[in-house]
Amino acid sequence: MAPKRKDGAQKEPTGREKKKQKMNAARTIAVQSVSFSENAQAGPSSNSGLNGLPSAIDVEKFAEARAFEINAMHSAMKNA
User: Fold this and answer.
1) pLDDT tens-digit profile of 3-29?
2) Does pTM top 0.90 for this prediction?
3) First-to-last CA distance in the chain?
């Protein structure tokens, strides 16, 4: 039988490889680079109490701060 491909070289990805690339791209969520400010401090993770946490959060301020992540999640869910 004659070989189906010349020299065994594949220049274009197969359908399976295209699907795999598409699935990997759909599963990837863009992230924003982290920039640390001078007053940002990491606290201990072993703190079991709620000391120092606010009693309520400002949803609008939180959404504005997380707009990049929210948009990335929306686009990832649309592509999935």
Assistant:
1) 676 665 657 889 999 999 888 888 887
2) no
3) 41
CA distances from 34 to 14, 26, 63 (A): 37, 23, 17
Tokens read off for 3: 């070989």
Do you know the residue count of the chain? Answer: 80
3-state per-residue secondary structure call for the chain: CCCCCHHHCCCCCCHHHHHHHHHHHHHCCCCCCCCCCCCCCCCCCCCCCCCCCCCCCCHHHHHHHCHHHHHHHHHHHHHC
The two structure tokens encoding residue 67: 């707009």
